[in-house]
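General statements about sequence and structure are easier to judge against a single worked case. Part of our work consisted of pairing the sequence of a single chain with a tokenised description of its backbone. The amino acid sequence and the backbone structure tokens for this protein are reproduced below.

***
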Amino acid sequence: MRIAIVAESFLPHVNGVSNTVRHLAEQLSAAGHSVLIVAPSPGDDRHAGIPVVRVRSVPLPFYREFPVGLPDKVMTNALARFAPDVVHLASPAVLGVAGLRAAKRLGVPTVAVFQTDLAGFARQYHVRAETVLWRWVRRVHRRADRTLAPSSETVDRLRALGIPQVHRWGRGVNLTLFGPARRDDDLRRRIAPDGEVVVGYVGRIAAEKGVWRLAELATIPGTRMVIVGDGPERADLERLLPDVHFTGMLQGEELARVFASLDVFVHPGEHETFCQTVQEAQASGVTAIAPAAGGPVDLIEHGRTGLLYQPSDPAALRAMLTAAVRDAGLRRRLSGAAQARVCDRTWTRTVDELVTRHYAAVLERVDRAA
């Protein structure tokens, strides 16, 4: 099969969309499919042997670290030359809409993946555009042949907007990379020399991730905090939390080593459509705490495979983390059950579901129409 992926974001920018596209493209290529990626510049023109067509981009005015791809003839010509069987729209917003139009002109079916809560993102940056953004999301996804959403809550929200053909498609986790065997006791001693409980956050250090809530956790007695990642709020957060260990952006084995060396992983953001870092913590044998909203609700069974707190309760997150810090037995039970639950969530299995169920469905509709 020939699959063109039009990605609203891709490497070298590291975020949920980029990481999902990277794993998707690599798995599709490994399975013998021909893959083309279209993504904003700057960046390499190949990834793991897969061609990447770069289009012009401009930074978001309120988030300059995020480039927005500008549709142009480079993309439309590349898609025409590639002649895909399916066009995969990864979190379509601007570039993805142009990819959708190009696919329609070529008579090629489209699968659109909803991954970024644009309305929640705008709200965090005090941009009053929620109604307009939801209308835009509805317009885009109603034109796609099939929409995939990463969590049951998101599926329900999109269906309520009147978007047809919405299906749940989750994410895989790299079980070869993430695992308890990566635990590094020397690293733990450097972070917590007095044997404190190591609490960590991994992700973009940005307002939409709720990172300022980490400040209320850093003073819990008997803990040391690690923050992994980078982003626009990092410098201010470092000044506020001088005793917290900031690692910067980590990837690969270095990231897996830090993950496995945590005792508790905390995600304070309530606008996650999936929350991949919860799965990575679970695979690493680490207790995960996340809000009872969005993607984490599908990933964590409260009290069995992790802990969910109510984001509307300002005291809930600190209280829940305090309880986990004080009870090592609880942490062992939660992390053990969570690790068992993710043991079959490989990227190979996830991408195979995408091809055999979702790509096959839109291709079948095209064949019937012909």
User: Anything to note?
Assistant: The chain has two domains: 2-172+346-369, 180-341. Residues 150 and 169 are 5 Å apart (CA to CA). The radius of gyration is 21 Å.
